[in-house]
Amino acid sequence: MSFQENTTNAAVFMIVEDDEEIRSSVADALAELGRKTLRATNGDDAIRLLESINSADLIPHMIFLDVMMPTMGGEDFLKWKRSHPLFKDVPVAVMTAGKTRLDDPSVVAHITKPFDFDSLKLLVEDLCNGAAVKAQGEEAR
After folding, report:
1. pLDDT (tens digit per residue) in 72-112
2. 11-33 confidence digits (pLDDT tens)
3. 100 vs 11, 75, 103, 106, 129, CA distance in Å?
4. Who has the most CB within 10 Å: 42, 59, 117, 132?
5. At 14, which helix (H) or strand (E)?
């Protein structure tokens, strides 16, 4: 579980993934796009990290979420997220090695693992731009 200091007010994205290599690949793709990351190894770590946020600048603009993880998987994390007012509307990109689809209103994409870095970077850029547009639209209301 880790914070990356947000001194530039850049959009923050959370990665919840038990596989270090995949977590790092997603973080690298986000970093190349100038995004800051919060990282957690499972749903429990993600909840602890989110509950410790004391600044609106650190609320994630999007969460990249693995489905199958030890301790607490993606489905149980989504149940918690739905019940939390600060995070219930944060969009989620689900990452899975199988054909598991999570039916939740906040899920905006399903990403099949394994993925190559260049494809991941393009997808992350599309998702980040979509998340930014959604966030801007909500602020205008």
Report:
1. 999 999 999 999 999 999 999 899 887 777 778 888 888 88
2. 899 999 999 999 998 998 888 88
3. 28, 10, 10, 16, 25
4. 42
5. strand 12-16
pTM over 0.85: no
DSSP annotation of 68 reads S
Dist. CA 89–CA 27, nearest whole Å: 22
Task: Classify each residue of 101-118 as buried b or exposed e, where b means 16 or more C-beta atoms within 10 Å of its C-beta.
Answer: ebebebbeeebeeebeee
Sign of CA dihedral 27, 3, 69, 94: negative
Running DSSP on this structure, what letter comes out for residue 2? B
In the chain, the domains with their CATH numbers are: 12-130 (3.40.50.2300)
Contact 36, 13 (CB under 8 A): yes
